[in-house]
Amino acid sequence: MKFFGVVLSSVFLASSALAWDAGGHQVVVQIAMDHCKPGSAAKVKALMAGATWTTTNTHGTQLFRDYSNPVVAARLADDIVDAIWKHNPFEQDSENYKEYHYLNEELNGDIVHEHGDGDVVKAINGALRKIAGQSTDLFPQGKMEAMSYLLHFVGDAHQPLHCIDDHDTGGHFKFTLPDTNGKTDVCHAWWDTTAKRIYKIKAAMATQSPTEMSTSLDTIESCATKLYKKYKKDIKAAEIKDLAPEHWATESYTFAHDKIYGITDKTQPSSDDIDGWNETAQRRMTLAGLRLAKIFDTYAGDL
After folding, report:
1. Is the per-residue pLDDT at 209 higher than 90?
2. Which domains does the chain have, with CATH numbers?
């Protein structure tokens, strides 16, 4: 399936829609593609083969956008939300769609919905139902649409600051932290850019030439390989087999509640805090990829 004539504006929405940045999401999917069964990977690739369309930017220039590689498609959900589309290629309502990226669970345990009743847990469950051929109000265009979003939302549910809120856009300005360029970044964005900060990855873009895309994907694959090697013994089989997004969101919330919002005795986290956050961020990305691989294998017969 191909979508044409989509118009893309450069007007950006709030960054709270982001979890891992584009490259981080691509690392998650690369881990999944590397560690699911070959037959499952082939079916995911076949399902996504039609995810291409031509867009026209505000200057009237047409751009061919290629999301047919599942790793590249990991960024599609953010690419749609990050800009105002005259026509969403999947006919989704942009305001309600934004809520699919996160779960606003407040520090007292209350869950708040800003626009509709959507959240990342409901979105993942809806995508899995659509892929399994079951009834759902989400993803009306079918399994490719559901997979496009699933590739992204599994990563979202594993980012701790996407499953908690204290009226601060998921810890957006909770702390100011050092980045790799000797500057500082807000707390939420610091978590988002974990793979870029530590492994110097370059996110693949749907508008890149084949050569450029290949170069970017090489950095993604290298990071995915290093993360798996680092955490493969630490992550238990029972964790990988847990395919309930409700549990993933609870894991994220608990860590953020206790280890990020739980810092109340100082204005900035200590170096030990930051080291622990870096480890947790990398482990969560790896676990997200391995759980997504398990989803691919579990639902391969439905693809």
Report:
1. yes
2. 14-49+99-302 (1.10.575.10)
